[in-house]
Amino acid sequence: MSCSLIRLWLPGLLIVSSFAASLPLEAQDMPLTQVLIDGEDWQSVSKGHRFTDGLTTDSEGNLYFADVAAGTTINRIGIDGKLIAVANDAPRISGMHCGPDGRIYACQGGSYGRIVAFDLQAGKMEVIAENVKPNDLVVTSDGHVYFTETAKMQVSHIPPGGKVQAADVASKTDGAQRPNGIALTPDGGTLAVSDYGGRHTWVWRIAKDGSLGLRQSYITLRTPSPDLPSKGDGMTTDAVGRYYVTSAVGLQMFDPTGRMGGVIAAPTNKPIVSVAFAGAGHQYLYVAAGDEIFRRKTKASGVEAVRPKRKAK
Amino acid sequence: MKPLIPLLALFLGGLFLPATATADYPLTADSKPQSGVPKGTVTQHRWEQSQIYPGTVRDYWIYVPAQYDASKPACLMVFQDGRGYVNEKGHSRVPNVFDNLIHKKEMPVTIGVFVNPGTIPAARPGGKSRSNRSFEYDSLGSRYVTFLIDEFLPTVTKDLNLVDDPQARGVVGISSSGICAFTAAWERPDYFGKVISYIGSFTNIRGGHVYPALIRKTEPKPIRVFLQDGANDLDNLHGHWPLANQQMAAALKFAKYDYRFEMGVGGHSGQHGGALLPEMLRWLWRDYPDVNQGTEK
Questions:
Q1: A214/B127 touch (CB, cutoff 8 Å), yes or no
Q2: What is the residue-level pLDDT of chain B in tens, covering all 297 positions?
Q3: Chain A partners of B123 at a C-beta cutoff of 8 Å?
Q4: Burial category of A109 from C-beta neighbours within 10 Å (exposed 0-12, middle 13-18, buried 19 and up)
Q5: Full DSSP string of B39-83
Q6: Which pairs with CB-CB distance under 8 Å and at least 24 residues apart come from B151-155?
Q7: In what order do the strands lie in the sheet with A200-206?
């Protein structure tokens, strides 16, 4: 609330103009200039893959990614920029997220059809759920796993130590037709899911028991034309609650109230399918663009910067 | 001559205010309590039963004029961002204005409903409540007006006798709720026949910048519109408010709507709109039965 007082002296007349304190009618406007830095463009950080996906980070800012098409490893780009394989025998990984226990939870598609968790230090993998068709996932700070099952038009939920359950199923007329990317708000209270086959990114309130409710088409994406879908794919959020969604027209950014802040250009003409904040201070946006991983420095920082520590082990 | 120059600059400064300055639009006597004018009652309530916006909670207020007689149907005006309109120290002080204008028969006996946007309270410990304001107000389409007509208004006005006529119903808002008010009447002109928008966000927050184009290529709807904006209103990522409101006014003129547009020099505040409200109401209600004619200023 600002209150300005302007006094204009005129002969024999004192004009006092007090501007009524503005009501907080609009949430703070969040243009791209609050995120992007002049002169900081995308830079290639890893290439020579086939189809990169599953970007995620840990509390140190290391970036993890997989190569869905050709790879059998989980790769890590450290904050020193060095690329190493941190897990072998891990094919068909399309989505990853670091859990509160330090393990990397992952969607393993194709004939595997399961959710797995990697303990990178011990070199162990545990199967968390089978007979699913997962695409992307997140893990809350208290260990609930949510993942998208695109073909089933479903968001699924695994409570800590529990079994898979359908948390939300769309109909052909309502809900995400091809649920794909998935992200949590910094407070962990709202789950957001992009729709590869529709125009919206949907949100739910996470109840105390971890169930999802109050589905809403809270965010509307720009589409290439009115009759084409958004191709909303990988998602992330930042520390102030902005949403980032990869899409047919680039990386779309939305403020915490669902209003578009702008579209960040993709680094190349290849589709971007996954996005994460990682690197030093989690201040770099990373995207997966086909055979190549790019990053650019921003003024924002990822949710990991404000979450309880999740150091991959 | 020289001493005159600073004075002249000051004088011109008063006429053409720079972007950093603000104009002063004081409230008139019509917006202040007047002795001998009966005062209506204002009651505050909370609504949390919406099926159209599940999980939302919102405060609302109902103003019932002293002249209301349950045996005679009254008119209705619905104010979005209601807290700002009903606030007795706010930009518009609607209960005072209604008291005064109804007393002078410059508007009919009218119920005021003032409703806030919804909030979705957090469910988990440490969670933050989520604002539903932009989703409800900035989105085009019929969802919000359906909420008003099908679930909210029938419940909150169920004990009141209201005229069933779009010309007896107005919808009002400021900024995002300004475009929301227009959207409500645009979608349901069979229900709302009168619109007031202060500093309306006819910009691309969620696609609302298309209205001038839609208005020009749509058979005119039977809605009467009063728009207000200021030359120093917002210019940001969503659009340029003064240009957007001028485009709206030009489109309404082209399509031969019954409209008025007041462009002041203020910024993104309710001050100018609030000061204009009595005039807006007189203009909107000027030909309503039993309203005094010829008092419009």
A1: no
A2: 344 444 444 444 334 444 444 568 999 999 999 999 999 999 999 999 999 999 999 999 999 999 999 999 999 999 999 999 999 999 999 999 999 999 999 999 999 999 999 999 999 888 899 999 999 999 999 999 999 999 999 999 999 999 999 999 999 999 999 999 999 999 999 999 999 999 999 999 999 999 999 999 999 999 999 999 999 999 999 999 999 999 999 999 999 999 999 999 999 999 999 999 999 999 999 999 999 976 544
A3: 189, 205-208, 213
A4: buried
A5: P-EEEEEEE---TTTTT-BEEEEEEE-TT--TTS-BEEEEEESHH
A6: B151/B49, B151/B50, B151/B51, B151/B52, B152/B47, B152/B50, B152/B60, B152/B115, B153/B76, B153/B78, B153/B113, B155/B47, B155/B49
A7: A179-184, A190-195, A200-206, A212-220
Structural fold of domain A17-297: Neuraminidase (2.120.10)
Bridge partner residues of B197 (DSSP) = B173, B227
Check if the beta carbon of residue A133 is closer than 8 Å to that of residue A151.
Answer: yes
Tokens of A257: 């109230």
Cross-chain residue pair A23–B135, CB shorter than 8 Å: no
In the A/B pair of chains, how many CB contacts fall below 8 A?
Answer: 120
In the numeric block, the tokens 């979450």 are attached to A307
For residue A22, give the nearest of B23, B236, B269 by CB distance. B269
- CB–CB of A8 and B24 under 8 A? no
Q: Is B246 on the interface with A (CB under 8 A)?
A: no
Q: Which residue of chain A has the CA closest to B173? A: A25
Interface contact B236, partner A, CB < 8 A: yes
Contact (CB<8Å) A185/B128: yes
DSSP notation for A170-211:
-BTTBS-SSEEEEEE-TTS-EEEEEETTSSEEEEEEEPTTS-
Whether residues A206 and B14 touch (CB distance < 8 A) is answered with: no
User: Residue B21 in 3-state DSSP?
Assistant: coil
How many Å lie between the alpha carbon of B210 and the closest alpha carbon of chain A? 14
Query: 10 Å Cβ neighbour count for A289?
Result: 22
Task: Tell me the shortest Cα–Cα distance from B236 to chain A, in angstroms.
Answer: 8
B7 interfaces chain A, CB cutoff of 8 Å: yes
Strands annotated E in chain B: 41-47, 58-64, 75-80, 110-115, 119-120, 130-131, 169-174, 194-198, 224-230, 235-236, 239-240, 258-264
| Chain B residues lying within 8 Å of A20, measured CB to CB | 91, 269-271
- The residue among B179, B78, B199 whose CA lies nearest residue B134 is B179
Q: Decide if A153 contacts A206 (C-beta within 8 A).
A: no
Please say whether the beta carbons of A282 and A60 come within 8 A: no
Nearest to A189 among B123, B138, B234 (CB): B123
* Distance (Å) from the alpha carbon of A199 to chain B's nearest alpha carbon: 12
Strands B58-64 and B75-80: unpaired
Q: How many Cβ atoms from other residues are within 10 Å of residue A203's Cβ?
A: 24
Residues 95..134 of B with a Cβ closer than 8 Å to A: which? 120, 122-128, 130-134
Q: How far is CA B18 from CA B12, B135, B174, B266, in A?
A: 10, 34, 23, 10
Give the HSE-up count for residue A244: Cα atoms under 13 Å, Cβ half-sphere.
30
